[in-house]
């Protein structure tokens, strides 16, 4: 084939890609539908000019188009890894985990159900053997990521709906391709009735092998990229190699799912990349992959659509009946999962609820595309598949794909509109009015500064200011006087705006490199939860999301267990250091929100809403400060190192900004500026290294903070530090239950707890203890104790507590004082303990140990 002609065709395809995007916007159709339509027109046109007798002038071009090396392996090994890898890099994984149950059900269970449903429906309606029918079912059961993701990103679909659809389309390819490989083997071997039990038993092994392969490949790539921090192009080049090596390694070497390997590699890089790569390198990498995926997605649609005229050749009227059977069976199987299984999982509390309009949109949004055509093409290319089977596979897969693209794809926007998912709710409409009012106020301030700077004509300024002021007054009045917005909705609007400003502040800090990239990803995810929580459940949803951001996760608890039981301190040290950095970053972000509330929220929603938001914000700040206080008590030197690191990062940012200003003002040349910025880059790379946290050496320092242990000698302090066990509690967690059998004494290192007994409640704070009365009186606890903020406690068992009591006079004094305030004879409680100096009197606002009186 002439290389000039091939190059011309490829250039023409890129021209088609460039034209398709504005054309899709003008026609209000998904770009994938436009690309598929143009591809089919090109294919039909090539066949027409090659067979017509009107002219032979275009025969070389038509022959070149039809002779393009379009094979199934081109789609599966070249385009598919690019699309999957970029989609995983662009996912908000922490938000995706909120809906992991419906995503996995749609990605795995729905694929199996669709394969079986379509397969048995075809087996009943056609003369094909069962293995061939199940093969067709596996081919048409996968939704295409390039079709689905592009459509849902181009329409006004809710974020949660788009996340579920994107997550399903990414993961179900692996399930469908794995099933395709299994049934393809049966068809080529001539096995008419495969053993479904044995076939499905191999399915988890394919998935697990692909996941492990992708994770290992990503870890190796991240390690390699971290070796070249000052070479962003080298890092991007390594990332480009990663999905292909993972795919080929899983498919050819391990015999596992290459799709799962690519997804696992992308997820691993998404989670660990921001923390291991410089922010600018990570941003460049994402931009390169966005462009690669855009080209790959467009080319895969055009090239796959070129095949459609050839795959539909030889179609008979009866084949269209079978296409109808496939369409009905596939939609019915998907409906069973969406309207049968998902509500059942929600009823038994295994899955978050998915609203009926969402499920209807997901049902109609299961589009097929190039992946389905590529799998069908792989069947038609095989020499070991019977001719009739190849013909029907090509026709049925192509017909079903055309139905999903041309019918479902073109009507999906209309369906979402009919379901009301593209319309703003009353509260969102009020939010838009608020945005306009706030924006116009900011614009007025900026315009005023501009007119003063440039000394414009006063009459012109006065005239324009009058018109602009009238518009601003109307916008503020519309935001304040909306009759259809209740007071609680105004609070919700303020919370959404506050969380949105928090997100903007995080992005600004990330650009300024004030906070690390990994922490920024976590904080952005928390801000998104705040926005969605406020939008769906108002104040309670915002508070629930805020509590979730401050809690100790399951990984942290598992690390505590490994440290306490197996003496493996590495995971706990790493997660504790992460929590330190996260809390410091949260404090930095939250302290910038007061000005937004006073300057923006108060002007729009009034003083009452602003005061309420200030109260909610102060609670979050208090929770962060409590968490930091506990960590500082436990690891004082580490907190100082992190704060020094923050100061160094801030100084470097300011220094870099100053050099940039000098370069713009012409005070320094390009050569000097480059040398200075390279020096800053070297120092910034050294400042990025986080100091190591040694959790083994911090026990005595923490114990020494307690006044109760002030009279212990250093040897006794070290022994006590080894005996005490840390306990991390989230707000609301029950620490001691009524009538509990275990007898332990708890010392509060940071945070606060609430005791409740006989209808009365007490609160205890840092430095106090509880549980000692039940131990000394040898009775089961009658109080229930729960943490009211995230707290750090030290736990001592009964035997060690009694031995400690015999050695510490300060502890005996505290126990005597607590017993006396509860009306218990201290001498009866401690008959053999020598009396010591009187315990210091509690300050008036402090809660005495073990509940001195009702709150």
From TrEMBL:
Gene3D superfamilies: 6.10.140.1330, Jelly Rolls. Pfam families: cNMP_binding (PF00027), Na_H_Exchanger (PF00999). The keyword Transport applies. The chain crosses the membrane at residues 6-25, 32-50, 70-89, 101-123, 129-149, 170-191, 203-228, 240-268, 288-308, 320-341, 361-380, 392-416. Residues 845-855 have a biased composition (Pro residues). Keywords: Cell membrane, Ion transport, Membrane, Sodium, Sodium transport, Transmembrane, Transmembrane helix, Transport. Residues 816-855 are annotated as: Disordered. Residues 708-822 form the Cyclic nucleotide-binding domain. Signal peptide: none annotated. It is found in: Cell membrane. InterPro entries: Cation/H_exchanger_CPA1, Cation/H_exchanger_TM, cNMP-bd_dom, cNMP-bd_dom_sf, RmlC-like_jellyroll. GO terms for molecular function: potassium:proton antiporter activity; sodium:proton antiporter activity. SMART domains: cNMP. Residues 826-839 have a biased composition (Low complexity). It is a multi-pass membrane protein. This is Cyclic nucleotide-binding domain-containing protein. It comes from Roseicyclus persicicus. The lineage of its organism: Bacteria, Pseudomonadati, Pseudomonadota, Alphaproteobacteria, Rhodobacterales.
């Amino acid at each position: 084939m002439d290389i000039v002609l091939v190059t011309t065709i490829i250039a023409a395809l890129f021209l088609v890609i460039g034209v398709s995007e504005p054309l899709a916007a003008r026609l209000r159709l998904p770009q994938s539908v436009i690309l598929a339509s143009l591809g089919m027109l090109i294919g039909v046109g090539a066949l027409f000019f090659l067979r017509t007798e009107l002219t032979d002038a275009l025969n070389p071009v038509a022959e070149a188009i039809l002779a393009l090396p379009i094979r199934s392996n081109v789609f599966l090994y070249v385009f598919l890894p690019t699309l999957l890898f970029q989609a995983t890099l662009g996912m908000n994984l922490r938000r995706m985990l909120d809906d992991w149950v419906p995503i996995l059900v749609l990605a795995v269970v729905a694929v199996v159900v669709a394969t079986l449903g379509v397969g048995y429906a075809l087996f009943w309606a056609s003369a094909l053997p069962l293995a061939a029918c199940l093969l067709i079912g596996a081919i048409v059961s996968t939704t295409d990521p390039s079709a689905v993701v592009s459509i849902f990103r181009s329409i006004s679909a809710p974020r949660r709906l788009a996340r579920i659809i994107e997550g399903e389309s990414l993961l179900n390819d692996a399930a469908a391709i794995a099933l395709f490989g299994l049934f393809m083997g049966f068809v080529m071997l001539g096995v008419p009735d495969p053993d479904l039990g044995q076939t499905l038993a191999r399915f988890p092994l394919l998935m697990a092998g692909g996941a492990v392969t992708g994770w290992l490949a990503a870890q190796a790539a991240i390690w390699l990229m971290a070796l070249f921090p000052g070479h962003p192009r080298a890092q991007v080049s390594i990332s480009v190699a990663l999905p292909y090596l993972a795919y080929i390694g899983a498919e050819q070497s391990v015999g596992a799912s290459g799709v799962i390997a690519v997804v696992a590699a992308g997820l691993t890089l998404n989670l660990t990349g921001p923390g291991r790569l410089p922010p600018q390198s990570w941003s460049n990498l994402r931009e390169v992959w966005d462009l690669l995926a855009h080209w790959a997605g467009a080319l895969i649609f055009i090239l796959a659509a070129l095949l459609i005229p050839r795959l539909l050749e030889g179609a008979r009227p009866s084949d269209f009946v079978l296409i109808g059977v496939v369409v009905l069976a596939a939609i019915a199987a998907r409906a069973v999962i969406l309207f049968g299984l998902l509500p059942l999982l929600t009823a038994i509390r295994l899955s978050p609820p998915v609203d009926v309009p969402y499920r209807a949109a997901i049902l109609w949004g299961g589009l097929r595309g190039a992946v389905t055509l590529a799998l069908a093409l792989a069947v038609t290319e095989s020499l070991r598949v019977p001719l009739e089977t190849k013909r029907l596979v090509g026709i049925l897969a192509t017909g079903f794909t055309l139905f999903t693209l041309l019918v479902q794809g073109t009507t999906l926007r209309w369906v979402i509109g009919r379901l009301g998912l593209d319309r703003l709710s009353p509260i969102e409409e009020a939010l838009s009015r608020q945005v306009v009012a706030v924006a116009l106020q900011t614009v007025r301030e900026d315009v005023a500064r501009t007119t003063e700077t440039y000394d414009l004509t006063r009459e012109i300024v006065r005239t324009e200011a009058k018109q602009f002021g009238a518009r601003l007054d109307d916008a503020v009045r519309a935001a304040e006087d909306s009759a259809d917005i209740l007071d609680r909705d105004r609070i919700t609007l303020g919370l959404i705006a506050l969380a949105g400003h928090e997100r903007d502040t995080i992005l600004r800090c990330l650009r300024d490199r004030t906070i690390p990239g990994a922490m920024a990803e976590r904080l952005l995810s928390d801000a998104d939860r705040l926005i969605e929580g406020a939008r769906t459940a108002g104040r309670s949803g915002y508070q629930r999301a805020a509590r979730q951001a401050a809690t100790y996760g399951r990984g942290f608890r598992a690390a505590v267990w490994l440290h306490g039981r197996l003496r493996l301190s590495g995971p706990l040290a790493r997660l504790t250091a992460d929590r330190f950095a996260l809390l410091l970053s949260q404090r930095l972000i939250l302290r910038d929100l007061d000005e937004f509330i006073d300057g923006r929220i108060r002007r729009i929603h009034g003083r009452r809403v602003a005061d309420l938001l200030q109260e909610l914000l102060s609670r979050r700040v208090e929770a962060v400060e409590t968490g930091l206080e506990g960590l500082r008590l436990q690891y004082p030197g580490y907190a100082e190192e992190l704060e020094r690191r923050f100061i160094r990062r801030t100084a470097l940012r300011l220094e870099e900004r100053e050099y940039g200003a000098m370069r713009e003002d012409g005070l320094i040349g390009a050569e000097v500026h480059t040398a200075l910025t390279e020096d800053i880059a070297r120092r910034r790379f050294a400042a990025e290294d986080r100091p190591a946290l040694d959790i083994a050496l911090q026990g005595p320092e923490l114990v020494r903070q307690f006044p109760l242990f002030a009279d212990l000698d250093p040897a006794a302090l070290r022994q006590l530090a080894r005996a005490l066990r840390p306990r991390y509690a989230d707000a609301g967690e029950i620490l001691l239950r009524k009538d509990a059998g275990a007898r332990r004494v708890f010392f509060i290192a940071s945070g606060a707890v609430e005791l409740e007994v006989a209808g009365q409640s007490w609160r205890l704070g840092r430095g106090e203890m509880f549980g000692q009365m039940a131990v000394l009186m040898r009775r089961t606890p009658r109080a229930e104790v729960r943490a009211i903020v995230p707290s750090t406690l030290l736990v001592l068992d009964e035997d060690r507590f009694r031995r400690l009591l015999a050695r510490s006079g300060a502890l005996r004094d505290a126990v005597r004082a607590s017993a006396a305030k509860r009306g218990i004879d201290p001498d009866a409680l401690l008959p053999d303990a020598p009396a010591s100096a009187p315990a210091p009197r509690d300050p008036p606002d402090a809660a005495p140990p073990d509940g001195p009186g009702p709150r």
